[in-house]
Specification:
Low-confidence stretches: 1-11, 18-156
Number of helices: 2
CATH class: Mainly Beta
Structural class: mainly beta
Helix content: under 10%
Length: 518
């Protein structure tokens, strides 16, 4: 299979981002204990700042990705820069201990330009990016300096022509909603539009295509409502105890055994009317002891070992104080353990500090509602993608609100399009609306196509994986194997003759495929 170089051209330029206001939530008005730092003791509470309250998004119904009308909006372009020495020093200090550091924040005229977990000596001065070529080169050199810290001796995924190992197809109207590997790599899980989960076993000694037989599901698990989200338990190393969580419309969070297909436990959330309410997103904490679940303007936290209705409610938006509004659509724990991130359909991203879940920063930048977020393996960067939004944004968490670069893909619907990073954090994979899979090397310096746009990371490989939208991307945790899933809702045209095949029939493909990337 030939892989084409995908140079970014004019049509792939990031969208201009006029200035917007950003909200940083002051949690001092809530009855929440002040957080304590593991090294330095109590952290000073965030000081009130002059902010504009985020506009609340009126979403009253439970959202499927395609069923919610999209509020697309252009947002401010980050214009933060310092000289090369100061920025390298900032990166160096951020990678050290958090001793004597404090969480501070500042609101710029566009996105948040703030310092977090840095030494007092770190430069905090913000300047607009110069239009001249010299500063462009400085930014690229700084980017390489930051990434030089993250090189790893672990096995790097070798990118050659991917070889199709095996595949399985589904009925025309039964499109897939992503795919995910278990933490031990022995199983791959996918959800379908018929509200069913299919579990497939996978051998760990795969070297060639002849080692993989035809894919046959080992278990099929059904939910009664539309699936919102699902995730594997992240602490399992024993295949005999492989479990995963699901959340669906009008149902509690369910914990399933992937080997037997049995329901092990349920976690129930109730609203102010004491009626059962479904979570829209979920994930485990880094140590697997907590379950984070997203609701409208709320994150509820369950104890993994205590199923039932007992949970901790953490509002993300509080009246005049502001915060993160809308439906919490995606969640991810930080590899550093003391933070977790939440994306919202209101186009905002929030960082929250454990153990009480205080908001550290809330910033905006996505053109559409945020549908997927992922931390880099070292925890210094956060990647985010949105609905009807062609940009994957790479946020620098050393300076929350600052964008390192933009990776451009094709997303034309409200459907959730996943992306994934390899175990080293070097390669970024994403599906596209046109059936292609795009790969970026995050260690390459980004370029600036125009002075008034963000830096762009050019893709270096692209291959056709499906004939329809590639909505699921998941890399095997230990093997050079990539799982992809495809499909979307196709609405027949009123002009189509029922007796004649539609022009789009050849483009419809609902399938799960495994690729060998070596």
């Amino acid at each position: 299979m030939e892989l084409n170089k995908n140079d970014v051209n004019d049509k792939d330029e990031p969208h201009l981002r006029p200035n917007d206001s950003t909200t940083i939530t002051d949690r001092s008005t809530h009855d929440i204990t002040e957080p304590h730092d593991a090294v330095t003791g109590p952290i000073e509470p965030l000081e009130p700042v002059n902010t504009h309250s985020m506009e609340e998004q009126s979403l009253e119904t439970c959202p499927h990705e395609e069923d919610i009308s999209d509020n697309t909006s252009k947002h401010g372009n980050i214009t933060t820069d310092t000289n090369e020495d100061d920025r390298v020093n900032a990166a160096d200090s951020a990678s050290t201990s958090v001793s004597d550091s404090r969480l501070k924040s500042a609101v710029s005229d566009s996105r948040v330009s703030s310092e977090v977990i840095v030494e007092p000596e770190t430069c905090r001065e913000n300047m607009e990016i110069s239009d001249n070529t010299e500063n462009m080169v400085d930014n690229q050199q700084q980017f390489m300096a930051v990434h030089s810290e993250n090189t790893s001796d672990s096995q790097t995924l070798q990118m050659y022509s991917p070889t199709l190992l095996t595949q399985v197809g589904f009925e025309p109207d039964n499109y897939l909603r992503g795919c995910k590997w278990s933490v031990d790599g022995t199983k791959v899980l996918t959800a379908t539009n018929e509200n069913k989960f299919y579990v497939y076993d996978f051998p760990l000694d795969v070297d060639t295509q002849s080692n993989v037989s035809e894919m046959r599901h080992s278990r099929v698990i059904s939910e009664t409502g539309g699936v919102y989200d699902y995730c594997w338990y992240n602490q399992t190393s024993d295949p005999s105890s492989c479990t995963f969580l699901t959340t669906s419309k009008d149902n509690p969070i369910h914990n399933w055994d992937a080997n037997t297909g049995q329901l092990l436990s349920s976690y129930r959330a109730y609203d102010q009317m004491d009626e059962l309410t479904a979570a829209y997103s979920l994930c485990y904490s880094l140590d697997g002891t907590k379950i984070y679940s997203g609701f409208k303007k709320m994150i509820r936290v369950f104890d993994t070992n205590r199923p039932g209705r007992e949970c901790q409610s953490r509002p993300t938006f509080a009246g005049k104080v502001g915060g993160q509004g809308g439906i919490i659509s995606c969640l991810a724990p930080s590899p550093q353990g003391n933070l977790y991130a939440a994306g919202s359909y209101s186009r905002s991203i929030g960082l929250y500090y454990e153990p009480q879940g205080e908001a550290v920063f809330v910033f905006e930048g996505q053109q559409g509602g945020v549908t997927h977020i992922a931390f880099s393996p070292d925890g210094t960067k956060l990647f985010s993608g949105g609905r009807k939004d062609p940009e994957i944004l790479c946020w620098d968490l050393r300076k929350p609100g600052q964008i390192l670069y933009v990776a451009v893909r094709k997303v034309e619907t409200n459907q959730r399009i996943y992306f994934d990073l390899d175990s080293t954090g070097r390669y970024l994979f994403s599906g596209n609306h046109d059936g292609m899979v795009t790969v970026w090397d995050t260690q390459q310096p980004p370029i600036k196509l125009r002075p008034d746009t963000d830096f762009v990371l050019k893709s270096f490989q692209e291959f056709r994986a499906h004939n329809d939208t590639v909505n699921g991307i998941s890399l095997h945790p230990t093997q050079p194997v990539l799982a992809t899933s495809s499909g979307q809702r196709h609405v027949p045209s009123l002009d189509d003759d029922e007796d004649l095949p539609s022009d789009t029939d050849s483009d419809q493909e609902n399938s799960l495929k495994l690729w060998l990337c070596k």
